[in-house]
Amino acid sequence: MALYRRIPGAIAVITLTNPPVNALSCTVREAIYETVKRATADQEVKAIVLCGANGKFCGGADIKEFSREMRGPPLVPMIDMIEESEKPVVAVIEGVAFGGGLELALGCHYRIAHSGAQVGLTEVTLGLLPAAGGTQRLPRLIGVPAALDIITTGRHVSAQEAVRLGIVDKVTDSSAMEEAIEFAKTVAGEPMGPRRLSLWTAACPEDLDSLLEGALVRIRQRSRGALAPVACVQAVRAAASLPFAQGMKKEQELMAYLFTSGQARAMQYCFFTQRAAARWTTPSGASWENTKARPVRQAAVIGLGTMGKGIAVSLSRAGIPVIAVETEQKRLKAGRKAVNSMLTRESQKRGLAEAHLGSISFTLDLRKLRDTDLVIEAVFEDMALKKQIFSKLSSVCRPDALLCTNTSGLNIDEIASAASRPELVVGTHFFAPAHVMKLLEVVCGPRTSPVAVATAMQLAKRLEKIGVVVGNCSGFVGNRMMRPYTEQAYYLLEEGARPEEVDLVLEEFGFAMGIFRVMDLSGLDVGWRSRKELGLTGPKLPPGTEARSRGGKRYSPLPDILCESGRLGQKTGRGWYLYEKERVATPDPWLQSFLEDYRSRFGIQSRRVGQDEILERCLYSLINEGFRILQEGIAASPEDIDVIYVSGYGWPRHRGGPMFYAWMVGLPKVLDKLEHYHRTHPDIPNLAPSSMLRKLVARGSPPVHQWRALIQQHSSQL
Ligand SMILES: CC/C=C/CC(=O)SCCNC(=O)CCNC(=O)[C@H](O)C(C)(C)COP(=O)(O)OP(=O)(O)OC[C@H]1O[C@@H](n2cnc3c(N)ncnc32)[C@H](O)[C@@H]1OP(=O)(O)O
């Protein structure tokens, strides 16, 4: 709702009241209409102040209403009504003014912000555009180039930048409300015509076409295939070239097209699932609601390799004092230097004073961890080494200290077996670079206690990461699903495709990089090392093993052969591609003839592999593994899998995540295709459709949010 009160000085104050973010629900819109009408009709009122309750102006339209039938007054005429008011309307921006919230403020005649506030036209992140006049008023207010950037990225703009750009008229460190009231008194009685943005003309550069073309190029690089940012560019073009009323018409047309699109649905699904992941539960009844996290006042990181350094920086950035441990003086020195320079860059970028960072001390002595609340071990993926460390930690750390292992796939329970308190051992799978990537898989072993899970999830929140609770199995959720995906990519090469063909299909789907470019970037030796450890290649491979088969299943030795010949990816200048200019991947003629030789050596008839087959075999095999993960209770819900893929594996947000995508495609189609590919490739068992997929199809393919109820009938590893 919106509360109305009159205060001395002939001011009407209208307060949006809809916790937690004062979203513009149907009731709020009705109340705004009513209260603004009341204020404009009241002879005693000379100016109006519009604010939000609880220190937040407004988080925009109520996203929950998007999936229901639209009720109540629409936003556009409501904002027009405010702009048309003869009495000045001053918006008090505290906390946030996002999406429709900022559009509402742009309809006001003045905007006063608190220094801690943020503004933004965030609609594009929900697959929409700012269709309550935002695409037409913002360019008129701050010019086309700056508006184009804000509208197409949906980025959050600080109050300081907002005042610099002219989005707000004033920023204050003290009470924005008091400032606005005093200001409103000074402008009462002035003509408001010049303050109506709809009457302004957008300042536009001469080379408008090249500005817009440049934006489209950046959009294609950032989110290929996404409709909303392209529509945003078209709407801003209208603001630059058409009168306001026609621009508004264009904005509405574009919105009508986006609003019902699958992409908008997918992105709104991502918004809610990301928040739902924090509300973890386990079948034992433990949950975020009934389990208290232990406070973490001091943390330690063991190992200052790539992951350890990023984790230490993340902790420090969250204001947590860190003790960083290494085994050798040389490594300690190099680690300290790297961490300190990362922190310096970080504080410069964020304008943070050092006081806001947690201190980091460096040591070779594990005994220094005796008072630590939480330790994150981040050494190499070597089970024996990890167990040794956990055994030592058990004797040096406090009995209640939480012991976390940063592993991308090792058995948490085996690591925990080396600790004297296995219930306090939890997996924290960070993603590289750990101070940048948002995802944290919190891996729960069979003996991990709810308190350990709660503390790790709370830590994720403090580190501004998205924590997702997963069960213990090789590769957990994310990496386990990657395996069949990468394997299919190798098999497609064996059968006749080229790396650039596979990558192009995946990039057109929306991944920033195809799988072969990703492997070249991270280094082919990463997978090689783990295949050697698993005895799939290298010295542990039993003599006489068939080259293209392991345990009766198809195996591709292609990546092993590349590694053996020193092609490790970007770092060696060649991998699946050639890198003559640093980081620029070009198709390599050598690889082409190598693949031809390989096929003829193994008697493989090369064929033209179509784009549909590339996409289906790669994605459906990954999705199929997702269904198996659900069946085994390794993930609590399909939504959790989708959060993992969107926030940690570059799955395009406008496709919602693999499980959501499967549902959008149609589960019967996914099942049918998997059956087909399994029939034609019986030596690839993971193409056999999972029983969970069959079950969902048999039940009429219910929407994703209903799967959880079906899953609960199965076993759970959580
Ligand atoms: C007719 C079409 C018109 C479209 C124009 C629009 O306005 S589209 C909406 C544009 N708004 C946004 O994009 C803002 C989305 N919200 C946020 O970015 C953040 O929630 C926040 C406002 C920055 C607050 O962040 P914080 O971390 O403090 O809290 P949460 O994100 O956890 O949110 C708290 C709960 O509030 C729910 N919520 C947030 N925004 C909205 C919203 N606009 N509509 C409905 N609900 C919203 C959020 O889901 C959380 O709910 P829980 O049930 O507690 O999970």
From TrEMBL:
Its main location: other. This is Peroxisomal bifunctional enzyme. The keyword NAD applies. Monomer. It is found in: Peroxisome. It catalyses: (2S,3S)-3-hydroxy-2-methylbutanoyl-CoA = (2E)-2-methylbut-2-enoyl-CoA + H2O; (3E)-hexenoyl-CoA = (2E)-hexenoyl-CoA; a (3E)-enoyl-CoA = a 4-saturated (2E)-enoyl-CoA; (3E)-decenoyl-CoA = (2E)-decenoyl-CoA. Its EC number is 1.1.1.35, 4.2.1.17, 5.3.3.8. PROSITE patterns: 3HCDH (PS00067), ENOYL_COA_HYDRATASE (PS00166). Residues 299-472 form the 3-hydroxyacyl-CoA dehydrogenase NAD binding domain. Pathway: Lipid metabolism; fatty acid beta-oxidation. Residues 475-579, 614-701 form the 3-hydroxyacyl-CoA dehydrogenase C-terminal domain. The keyword Isomerase applies. Keywords: Fatty acid metabolism, Isomerase, Lipid metabolism, Lyase, Multifunctional enzyme, NAD, Oxidoreductase, Peroxisome. Signal peptide: none annotated. In the N-terminal section; belongs to the enoyl-CoA hydratase/isomerase family. In the C-terminal section; belongs to the 3-hydroxyacyl-CoA dehydrogenase family.
